[in-house]
Amino acid sequence: MKRMVFLLALVCTAAGFGVLQAAAPDSPSGTPQYSGDNHLLRPENYREWIYLSSGMNMNYGPAASDHDMFTNVFVPQWAYQAFLKSGKWPDKTIFVVEERGAESKGSINKQGHYQSTDLMGIGVEVKDEGRFPDKWAYFNFGSDTKSAQAAPKGACWRCHEDHAAVEHTFVQFYPTLKPVAQKFGTYRQEREKVE
Ligand code: HEC
After folding, report:
1. For a FRET experiment, which of 24, 68, 94, 95 has its CA 20 to 30 Å from that of 131?
2. How far is the CA of 138 from the centre of ligand 1 (A)?
3. Separation between Cα atoms, residue 32 and residue 58, nearest integer Å
């Protein structure tokens, strides 16, 4: 009997711990983390964040790419929840766009593409108003890069500034966020114009 009580106590403790763990915020990696020299640390668990959408072979210039690729976009839970309530991104929101190779021949597939295990790299965007004079900053990570310094303004910031529909983000391509932003009046409809 004593043994039973002990076991029961153990199970309850474990269950309680599980609940606590589930309720814990998804930080520190749900907010931008830097090393002392203002380099952004690679966000490790972004695959547990909210998935916004995928692009396939998206290309914004005249030159066609020679390989097929998917882009998958993620944002942390806490920032997503704030966006649902306001149509705006809170300070310290972080986004990941993951680049993955596309495959077409494998298993039972006869047509179309699926994503490969081949991670080509990730692009990261942060809204960090206190740290960066331009408020938004951009970072490129190769498949193994652990930290990165902010990219020059012309490399990323400019295109996001000039073409994104909500603040610096391409909500025109994220089907579940677009109606939210439209509802709150934060959506720039003109950014949908075909160029
Ligand atoms: C010529 C325009 C252009 C440039 C330059 C550009 N991006 Fe983007 N970016 C886009 C578009 C369009 C999307 C939406 C992609 C999708 O739906 O898959 C996007 C999406 C993103 C996202 C997902 C969140 C969001 O803002 O919608 C991140 C993160 C990102 N880009 C990072 C970068 C980084 C880092 C660089 C520089 C190395 C960069 N981008 C350069 C056009 C650009």
Report:
1. 24
2. 9
3. 26
Ligand 1 within 6 A of CB of 170: yes
Place of tokens 């003109």: 190
Most informative mutation of 70, 80, 140, 156 for ligand 1 (most atoms within 8 A of CB): 156
CA of 87 to the centre of ligand 1 (A): 19
Q: Tell me the per-residue pLDDT of 114-159, one tens digit each, with 9 for 90 and over.
A: 999 989 999 999 999 999 999 999 999 998 899 999 999 999 999 9
The per-residue pLDDT for 66 is: 77
Q: Are 159 and 170 in contact (CB under 8 A)?
A: no
Residue 118 in 3-state DSSP? strand
pLDDT tens, 40-80? 999 989 999 999 999 999 987 777 677 889 999 999 999 99
Sign of the Cα torsion 104, 108, 114, 119 reads negative
Task: Ligand 1, residue 139: give the atom nearest the CA.
Answer: 35
Ligand 1 neighbourhood includes 121 CB (under 6 angstroms): no
The residue ranges of every structural domain in the chain are 33-104+111-192
Task: Decide: 138 in ligand 1 pocket, CB within 6 A.
Answer: yes
Would you tell me which CATH number, out of the four given (3.30.470.30, 3.40.50.300, 3.50.70.20, 3.20.20.30), belongs to the domain 33-104+111-192? 3.50.70.20
